[in-house]
Amino acid sequence: MIENSILLCTFNEGKYIKETVLNLEKNIPNLEIIIVDDNSSDDTISILNNLNTKSSLKIIKRTKTRSLGSAFQRALIESQGANIGWLDTNMGDLASKFPEMISELNSYDLVLLSRYVQNGSDDRVFIRAFCSKLINFFCRLVLSSKIRDYTSSIFIMKRSVLNESVLLGYGHGEFFIEFLYSVIKKNFKIKEIPYKQKKDDDIENTNTSPNLLRFFFLGFFYFTRVLITRFRRY
What we know:
Blueprint (H helix, E strand, L loop, with lengths): L3 E7 L6 H11 L3 E7 L6 H6 L6 E6 L6 H11 L4 E4 L11 H7 L5 E5 L6 E2 L3 H17 L12 E4 L15 H12 L4 E5 L1 E2 L14 H20 L3
Parallel strand pairs: 1-2, 1-4, 2-3, 5-8, 6-9
Antiparallel strand pairs: 4-7, 5-7
Helix pairs in contact: 5-7, 6-7
């Protein structure tokens, strides 16, 4: 039986994908990696097809849909592990955190990397770090103060969490805010572990901020989704 499933959602991640997959293999035992690619136009798929991996690697290529929320949901459907986690493809160095996160599943149901607990930090450009802190403050104010970092979305959880929690696979990263809130409402035990988010190496290639106008456009949907989440029945 597969113990750990890690989900990756890719779009033009050729610069990072090989290192991320190899780092996951290095740090996580009994592993399957499920990759949902939203029609990358770079060499992402070519690199994956030529990777020599020891773990189970499943690649799902979508050509007509591009959405982080639905890609995550699609990957979940394919997962078989007793534990399920997610990592941003361009943050492969954080794979080294997963052994500690997995060990915490002995006492908790979901373990989340967090920039806003003690010893965590966000060292990205000012506008991105400020907006992230603002959104998270709004989440704690409107939803629950039990979570400090609603938008990190780097986590691992027991499969049993899926049996009771709500995952609506639409939108960008805001879908994870709603999912976390449903986990809280069902009284699952959540642990936040600190991490330091590094400065943006290539801001033009990040999924969350391709340009300033789109960045604020996405922010509007984050705030709207938080309000919808607060009044949705779970």
